[in-house]
Amino acid sequence: MDRGSMLRVWLPLALGLYVLYIVFVHGPGPRDMMRRVGLVLCLIGLSGVILARYTLGRSFSILAKATALVTTGIYFRIRNPIYVSSVIFILGLIVMMRRPASWLALALIILVPIQIIRARREARVLEEKFGEKYREYRRRTWFYDIWESK
Fold it and tell me: What is the pLDDT along the chain (150 residues), one digit of tens a residue?
């Protein structure tokens, strides 16, 4: 395993699991079934993010750039699995910590709009570089209408 894989996949996984442990064991709220449901949602979301980053390999970047058009693995049907998985993770935190008003406000007012803006920017960059190949890929993925600007 190379250093890039360690930083791109395994370090975020370890940090994410550590944070989940701390929140689950020491976070606010009752220790009941809802807390476990929240933990499961968080684990699904974290798994999705890690799987997406692993699938992207060296194509992953913070800024929108087009090095390769990745259409396999989790990207076969979900064009933006990191964003979708992040929302699942945040929903899990909301359920686990029982602070729906503050967390939901954070997610809806700040995080989701930022992710939509980033997804649109990425779509423009990929469409410029890959043209019709990207447009065809975009049409066959889920959440087509959500990310598209009208």
Answer: 566 666 667 888 889 899 899 989 998 878 899 999 999 999 999 999 999 888 887 665 555 566 788 888 888 888 889 888 988 998 888 888 887 677 677 767 787 788 888 888 888 888 999 999 999 998 888 765 554 544
| Separation CA 75–CA 142 (nearest Å) | 10
Domains in the chain, CATH or no CATH each: 3-147 (1.20.120.1630)
Give the separation between CA 19 and CA 104, rounded to whole angstroms: 19
CA dihedral 113, 119, 123, 124 (to 10 degrees): 50
